[in-house]
Write a structure and sequence with these properties.
about 210 residues, mainly alpha, about 80% helix, globular
Length: about 210
């Protein structure tokens, strides 16, 4: 389908594993201070994703509502898993967001207002990339930073679970694409993936 081929091109363009921060993560070049700072900043994105799934559930009807409500409940619980990582690297759960982080959280949660289908696309764009990202981060944490077990539980879970979440999200999107403004939906995907880069840019610049 033309929509998904265009989506894949956008995802490749904004692949955050090519971002210098994650490249240095995988090479074991991050300082303890950088990891701690990142954990507090990215926490805002984790909360924003939970918010987005809750919005999608609230706007749904029929069988989709129950499915999305379960998804939203899972993502809300996953904030506590992220906090284990924050604690493991000495981060701050209450860290104030930088402007780049605020922009990312807003794009992810949909605070700017968007349709339910646009929210589904935004959540899919985030979650479809997470298995590989989570695997890469988990391996880097274990190999270079000595963080495994509870401190890496968030990544271990999302490496597996987001395969399922993305598949379910894509099915919901496919059922609604025929009469949709596909250019606008792809613009939403571009926005949330680009925003992830902004957050990482902010963390990188703070360490410079």
């Amino acid at each position: 389908m033309r929509f998904w081929s265009r989506f894949d091109a956008i995802a490749r363009e904004h692949d955050v594993l090519r971002h210098p921060f994650y490249v240095r993560w995988s090479a074991g070049e991050l300082s303890a201070t950088e990891l701690a700072d990142y954990s507090g900043q990215y926490r805002h994105a984790v909360v924003a994703l939970a918010r987005a799934t809750a919005i999608a559930a609230a706007d749904a009807d029929g069988d989709a509502r129950a499915e999305l409500a379960m998804h939203a409940a899972e993502e809300t619980r996953h904030v506590a898993l992220w906090d284990r990582f924050v604690d493991a690297v000495g981060g701050d759960r209450q860290a104030a967001p930088r402007p780049e982080t605020t922009a990312c959280a807003s794009a992810w949660s949909g605070e700017h207002g968007r349709s339910q289908l646009a929210t589904l696309v935004a959540v899919y764009a985030i979650e479809a990339a997470q298995p590989e990202i989570s695997k890469t981060k988990r391996e880097g944490l274990a190999t270079h930073y000595g963080i495994e077990g509870p401190g890496a539980a968030y990544f271990e879970l999302h490496e597996r679970l987001d395969v399922e979440h993305a598949a379910a999200g894509r099915k919901l999107i496919d059922a609604r694409l025929a009469d949709a403004d596909q250019d606008a939906l792809l613009g939403e995907a571009d926005a949330v993936l680009r925003a992830n880069w902004w957050l990482l840019d902010g963390v990188e610049q703070a360490a410079a």
